[in-house]
Each structure stands twice: as C-alpha cells, then as structure tokens.
C-alpha cells in the first residue's frame, strides 16, 4: 500500500509546505508495480485507495491482504519528525518485534536498496508494533523513505526520478529474492491492437493498428494513456474531461464503467490484457 491518503483524506501526514505524504508514497508504489509486473507469476493487490481520495483503515488493509493470501506486504511511507523544517535525515524500515528471520532478511535488503536509491543515510531496521505489521499473516515491511520535514530529504522526495528509482530498487530486491523470471514479449496480433504512434483509432480500418501491450494504471501518463482515453470515448464510456494522456480519476472511473459491463470479474481500474482484449473487441465489433 501507499501509506495514508491524499488531499483532505488524512489529518497531518504532509510536509511543512502542505505536500501530502500519500503523493510521495504513491509515486514509489507505482514505480515498484511497473517494474515488478515485467516478471512472471506476479500479482499485486493495492489495499490503499489508488485514487488517494480516502484513507483506508489500517485494520481493513491488513484484513484485505490476509484474505487475498499475499506472500509479502509492503507499506510505502515517508517520515516526519517535528512537522517543521529541520536537518534530520535518512531512511528506515520497520518490522514487527515478533517477525520472522525471513522478514528481517528482506527488510535489511530493502534498507540497503533505499540508501543507494535515495542517496540518503540509512537509519536501520527497527522493531515496531504498527497495526499493519502486527495483524498481517505474511512478512510485512513498512518503509520510511526519508523525512518530509527535512531540508535535506525533501529535495529527494520532490524529485520524481528519485522516487522512480526507489520503486525500481525495492522491486529488484523482491525479484532477486523470489528468483522471478522476466516475461517474454508477447507476439503482436494486428487484429487485437492499437497503433502506438497514433493518438486516435481508425474505426474503419482498426486491424491495421498495433497497440502497446503495456499495463496502464492510475497515475500513468503518455501516448498509451491517450489511446486508452480515445478508445473509451469511442465505445461510449466517455470521459468528462479532455483526452490529455493522464490516467487520473476521470479515466479511472470511465475504465471501471467499461469493466463493469465487459469484464465484470475484473473491475479493478487497471488496463491489463483482459480489458485490452475486451476493449479491442468492442471497437472492432
């Protein structure tokens, strides 16, 4: 999960300038997910609100992870000290006092990865009785990636390239730990794709178009998102706002409306293989 929630959903949990912790957390989580989904046999469950609109209760987060049967629980956070600017610095990891040796092993590997990716001091792996660590049934690790109220650390937190590197670094720890194999590039099927070099879809001759097989989710940007937005408009699951290449709340809701009709068993707001096939099928029908 990305710890806490976004605007107006969590008291406090922000920098002295008013930047919400969840926004930093979410960027790391999205980068982590994008990297690890390049590998086989990986499933991700977000137990926070992916839109940031609500702060999902900690008890529910832990219960959802347990019910789903997760192998590892990662909670992405960023730290705070007094809430006013200071010069404290560093990353740290929290695990439950009764956690397994395996949990500690993973935590120490992640801590080393954080120090390298953030280029900040490491404050170590510490024991804490946090609810998501206490009530989960799998190795659970809470990551604190630098201080939001640090004049040193905030420069890293405001740098999206750094946050992206952090997500990738944490993913690589899990990839190596689980010895995951990278997915093979799928064969392209001209009848089932959209052209990557166009922002529109030719409704009269769509078999000539080739689409990216990239998985798209909330927070993504780029030409692939524009293609998805255009396709949703064409199939009458229209966006309220313009096609802008930003996978925001409007695109998320339009995609979920489409999924509720065409992939009712997969209404997750993620544009993956099943949803892509369904969308192309509707376009070509």
Automatic annotation (TrEMBL):
UniProt entry tagged with the keyword Hydrolase = yes
Gene3D superfamilies listed in its UniProt record: PGBD-like superfamily/PGBD (1.10.101.10), Zn-dependent exopeptidases (3.40.630.40)
Q: Which residues cross the membrane?
A: none
Question: A Pfam family in this protein?
Answer: Amidase_3
- Give start and end of each MurNAc-LAA domain: 62-175
A Gene Ontology molecular function term for this protein is: N-acetylmuramoyl-L-alanine amidase activity
A GO BP entry is: peptidoglycan catabolic process
InterPro entries assigned to the protein according to its UniProt record, in alphabetical order: MurNAc-LAA_cat, N-acetylmuramoyl_amidase_3, Peptidoglycan-bd-like, PGBD-like_sf, PGBDSf
Q: Which CDD domains match?
A: MurNAc-LAA
Q: Which UniProt keywords apply?
A: Hydrolase
Q: Which GO terms describe its cellular component?
A: outer membrane-bounded periplasmic space
This chain's protein is named N-acetylmuramoyl-L-alanine amidase
């Amino acid at each position: 999960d990305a710890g806490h929630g976004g605007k107006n959903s969590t008291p406090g949990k922000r920098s002295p300038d008013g930047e919400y912790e969840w926004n930093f957390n979410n960027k790391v989580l999205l980068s982590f997910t994008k990297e690890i989904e390049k590998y086989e046999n990986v499933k991700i469950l977000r137990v926070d609100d992916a839109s940031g609109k609500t702060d999902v209760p900690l008890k529910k987060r832990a219960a959802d992870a347990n019910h789903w049967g997760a192998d590892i629980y990662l909670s992405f956070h960023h730290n705070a000290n007094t809430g006013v600017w200071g010069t404290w610095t560093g990353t740290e990891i929290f695990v439950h006092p009764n956690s397994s040796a395996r949990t500690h092993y993973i935590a120490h590997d992640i801590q080393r990865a954080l120090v390298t990716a953030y280029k900040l001091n490491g404050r170590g792996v510490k024991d804490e009785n946090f609810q998501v660590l206490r009530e989960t049934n799998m190795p659970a690790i809470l990551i604190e990636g630098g201080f939001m109220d640090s004049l040193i650390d905030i420069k890293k937190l405001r740098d999206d390239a750094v946050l992206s590197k952090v997500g990738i670094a944490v993913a690589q720890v899990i990839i190596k730990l689980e010895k995951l194999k990278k997915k093979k590039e799928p064969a392209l099927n001209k009848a089932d794709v959209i052209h990557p070099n166009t922002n529109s879809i030719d409704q009269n001759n769509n078999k000539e178009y080739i689409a990216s097989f990239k998985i798209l989710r909330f927070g993504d940007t780029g030409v692939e998102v524009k293609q998805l937005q255009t396709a949703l408009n064409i199939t009458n699951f229209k966006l309220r706002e313009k096609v802008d290449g930003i996978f925001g709340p409007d695109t998320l809701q339009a995609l979920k409306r489409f999924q509720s009709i065409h992939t009712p068993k997969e209404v997750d707001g993620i544009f993956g293989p099943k949803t892509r096939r369904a969308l192309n099928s509707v376009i070509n029908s």
